[in-house]
Amino acid sequence: MKLAFPKAEYVKRVKKVQREMRRKGIDVLIATDPGNMNWLTGYDGWSFYVHQGVIVSLDEEEPIWFGRHMDKSAALLRCYMKDDKLIAYPEEYVQNLDKHPMEWLAKNIFFARGWHDATIATEMDNYYYSAQAHLSLVSNLWKARFVDSQNLVNWARCIKSDKEIEYMKIAGRITSKIHQRILDVARVGIPKSFVVAQIYETAIEGVDGYSGDYPSIVPLLPSGKEASASHITWDNKPFKANEGTFFEVSGCYKRYHCPMSRTLYMGKPSQRFLNAEKALLEAIDAGLEQAKPGNKTSDIAKALDKVMLKYGIDRHGARCGYPIGVSYPPDWGERTFSIRASDDTILKSGMTFHFMPGIWQDDWGIEITESILINDDGCESLCDYPRKLFIK
Amino acid sequence: MKLAFPKAEYVKRVKKVQREMRRKGIDVLIATDPGNMNWLTGYDGWSFYVHQGVIVSLDEEEPIWFGRHMDKSAALLRCYMKDDKLIAYPEEYVQNLDKHPMEWLAKNIFFARGWHDATIATEMDNYYYSAQAHLSLVSNLWKARFVDSQNLVNWARCIKSDKEIEYMKIAGRITSKIHQRILDVARVGIPKSFVVAQIYETAIEGVDGYSGDYPSIVPLLPSGKEASASHITWDNKPFKANEGTFFEVSGCYKRYHCPMSRTLYMGKPSQRFLNAEKALLEAIDAGLEQAKPGNKTSDIAKALDKVMLKYGIDRHGARCGYPIGVSYPPDWGERTFSIRASDDTILKSGMTFHFMPGIWQDDWGIEITESILINDDGCESLCDYPRKLFIK
């Protein structure tokens, strides 16, 4: 099976992580974020509902994949490392309250390799590193010193390679195709579920021979009053006249995402709605003007908020963007910096983020967003699609 | 917005959990499993990528929903409780390494309600209860006694109500429709991604006016050698002649699942493959004969394994089933009992599980599975679909 990236790229990534580990005094790092596992080794499979991870150490050039017995054959097909770096725990440790995989790991990897008294970094706030996983590991490695990785691997992923950007642009083309399909099929009286079925079909079919992956977040398309509840999923009620619906979707290619939202109003939008569009478009332009190497993430958020306030819209400190790249459910964000007024991350060429300044009011909402690549001169959209409120 | 169940059903469920808490000496329970949140309150939304949960206490009749500020409007639309039981933390606590929602929760809910020295149960091995969430909560509630809920709420969900079974049967009808669609469109030369697009379209469109939800696991359809790696996701390569592909899919209705796998062989299967089918069908029959109230989960597994061994197939202790019901990514299982030889859970009428005795060999695999309801007399399939190896 062909890897998504040349082996040299994985080797380079692992070395980068090892450098950061050395700088922070970390001997061994356990990455349980499936996006981090993929980025470090190529591993890709729907197996993150059981305990698994990738272990990077300063002692060994290549990382170790660990997972359940049944998934080792997937690791053999997907990882750049060979069999000797793939370690599987027995099936009886799967979802068994009496036997935790981390006990097995402590004995069979950490003690076996003399890492029982190392400084070990774990991804403390990750979905796939549970409270029990940590307690089991700590109590079985009583001589080790545990530290939070503070998203070390996620941070290492911030600046994308050319190949990663290529994949994100393919995802972006799928995103555009999805929005075009929405415009084609959504109209008053059509059930939402029908449009969602079309979104999925388009997303998976992909574009020009590049077939799509499942996105890490399902399509969100709340209308009218529900648009204030931006994470509610669809039902089968028909679209109504004189309501706005925002469509938050992302194409996904080789697990890389390129999310983008557009709002579609069916009927004649009120002046308030049109004003919101005007405010958003002007605020996005103001934000993007600040999106260039050397500036800070907060510069973007402040420029946006300033325009929004001019139009009387207070976003109450809600962040207006987050980094994107390779990822798995439940989130397509990379969980490092945020685009918000209190975040002073320095922007660098090769960084990618979803700039998403929605307006969510009590009884309506509007989203017009862009996935952005910081380049040497400023920034560019990863998706080529008209930026406006659509009216039908 | 209409709740999925009458308010009385939610009230009954909460009371059941409170009884169990009392029995175990638990004052306050925090449910972070989105399936448990849904079952207890009706809450449903794609917001589980941030910290959220439902708190059940012995002091208050109704549970408390907590989540980020932005998601409170979803809770207002989806939960059976009123506004005063919905507590939102400020947006600045979202994915911010310096501010953890559990700090806020400790102060604004636990101290505010006098639960700072209570016995508090948390879902220790849940995806959505991270190591950091636990450490933050423990360090901010230094007088409290923390215990593992040991999946108390999941166990309370084991026996399904009539309405839940109704939903699972609708999900089962969607599952059957998906398999029918697979049979219609899959053939040698067709890219897998095309079939996946059709699976999604069918799953979302649903059946007879019941539109489908997103399933908690994406369609899995590995072929030939890859079928040994059962959690690998699809690509766009065409189906090949003389290979078997198993399709592990589930319809989903109001978040209730009814998974079922079937294997499709394109060409003329080898005698080994046909023998595997024979072994599986006989083993499934033997297992299902043991699936009745009063028997144990291990009785099913042992009956199955006995037949498998007769055919020379050693499943190496892999479990052959797990409970199903309401759930969210990354898993459609309920994570309580397992159908395995070492699990002695007593079967009761109303229990539902996915009986999935796959055979995964080094270079091929076969899955024929059933979603099962234990009834007063024995058991029944939740899905009505021919149980056999399909050949095309």
From TrEMBL, chains A, B:
Residues 13-159 form the Creatinase N-terminal domain. It comes from the Bacteria. One of its GO terms (molecular function) is hydrolase activity. Gene3D superfamilies: Creatinase/methionine aminopeptidase superfamily (3.90.230.10), Creatinase/prolidase N-terminal domain (3.40.350.10). The keyword Hydrolase applies. Residues 166-375 form the Peptidase M24 domain. It holds the Pfam family Creatinase_N. Keywords: Hydrolase. This is Ectoine hydrolase DoeA. It comes from Malaciobacter halophilus.
